[in-house]
Amino acid sequence: MKLARLMKGAIQGARASLAAGESGWVALSGAGVFPQAGYRSTAGKPVSQDSALTVSAVWDCVRKLSQTAATLPLKVYEKSANGGRVEIEPDFADIICRQPNSVQTQVEFWEGMVANLSMRGNAVAEKKVLGRNMVGLSPLPNLTPYVNAEGRIVYEFYDRGKLERLPKDKVFHLRAFDPGNGIGLSTIRYGANSMGAALAADETAGSVFSNAMMVAGVLASDQTLDAQQRAQLGEIINSYVSSRRAGKVMVLEAGLKFEPLQMNPEDAQLLETRRFQVEDVCRWFGVPPIIIGHAGDGQTMWGSGVEQIMLSWLTLGLNPLLSRIEARLQRDIVPPEKRGRWYCEYNREALLQMDSRAKGEFMARMGQSGTMTANERRQKLNLPRHDDPAADALLAQTALAPLEDLGKEKSNEQA
């Protein structure tokens, strides 16, 4: 017993003493959080994680996925003999559910992991161990795993100019959609054309507005200019370009006449193109456009239709993501000897907390059907247990009864 307390104290001490460079985000190649290498799109714009995040639709899709997954309660359970379960708190639960390292909270850690998972298809963290015990998880955002010639997954990165390779048992590796080789497919890579087109559309609209919506102009003259005169004229014209110089009066000589070509505001913003790009980006991340505040053509932003879209996203978008994380925690974090009895699970019902009506209806049905006791329902609402013995009893509606039993109760009372 004394040895166990000593070992636990050593683990806590090691976890607290992890240096900032070993316990939080690790900058592996350059000053940025994400890898700088990008993919060339058909629109001519290079697409990397950093450049993709400058597209508002990409930013909000990644943010919504990351924040929603990171803020859901995550707990560890043990299966009981009667088929139920009980919440437990082994040492690793403190790491994955509260403080993965000395720098980050669990929300910050899982936000980063899900952000990398949704963009790069892979999210990697290094297991910090003391003996056989894990004492922390350090995210490695710039590490991209690959499969070598022998078909094995390799985890390599540069740390202060030195190539480091992590063994597989020291890595916590989340994978997105996987074709079967153990490496998740990158949304940024395969969606480079869509995101590159969005970048190009933003740049075009910005360029048009910077020129005060003057897309082009024609200088007309009845004289022929030589090369030097054309160069001088070009310099004069450039001094009138940009939105800051809008309204400036141009002085033309030698019979020159300037005829501007102007766009209307709708064309200048490339509305149809940019609207399509938002919906296309959302498709790559599996997020309905309405989640990021974009309504499709003819679609409203309220009503039962929106509710069904939200439920569809929870079922087809968030649930597979959460199940993927739970399965990987079961595979890589839960001790091998406990995997048949212990498991990690997100509380998906927490998504109903903001909808008081749905929460109330759910609780009422659970109570009336004899599925949950009053104290179990109070626990779901973060309320203290009630001392009434009936609060631990299962109840059910008794309005319906067999026809042959009708009137029996009244007859017994009269007798």
Structure description:
The chain is α+β, with helices and mostly antiparallel strands. Helix content is 41%, strand content 16%. It has helices spanning 2-16, 20-23, 49-52, 56-71, 91-97, 106-120, 187-190, 192-210, 227-238, 265-268, 271-285, 304-332, 356-368, 374-380, 408-414; strands at residues 39-40, 46-47, 74-79, 85-88, 122-130, 133-139, 146-147, 153-159, 162-166, 171-175, 214-220, 257-262, 342-346. The strands form 5 sheets. The chain has a 3-stranded antiparallel β-sheet with strand order 4-3-13. Strands 6-5-10 form a 3-stranded antiparallel β-sheet. A 3-stranded antiparallel β-sheet has the order 7-8-9, with no helix packed on it. A hairpin with a 2-residue loop joins β8 (153-159) and β9 (162-166). α4 (56-71) crosses α6 and α4 (56-71) runs parallel beside α11 (271-285). The longest helix is centred in the C-terminal third of the chain and has 29 residues, at 304-332. Residues 16-32 have low confidence and may be disordered.
TL;DR of this structure?
This protein is an alpha+beta fold and 415 residues long. It has 15 helices and 13 strands.
Class of secondary structure makeup: alpha+beta
Could you list the spans in which at least 5 consecutive residues all have pLDDT below 50?
16-32
SSE order: HHEEHHEEHHEEEEEEHHEHEHHHEHHH
The helix tally amounts to: 15
Strand arrangement within the widest β-sheet reads: 4-3-13
Helix content: 40-55%
The share of residues in extended strands comes to 15-25%
Beta strands, count: 13
The biggest sheet amounts to: 3 strands, antiparallel
Overall average residue pLDDT: 78
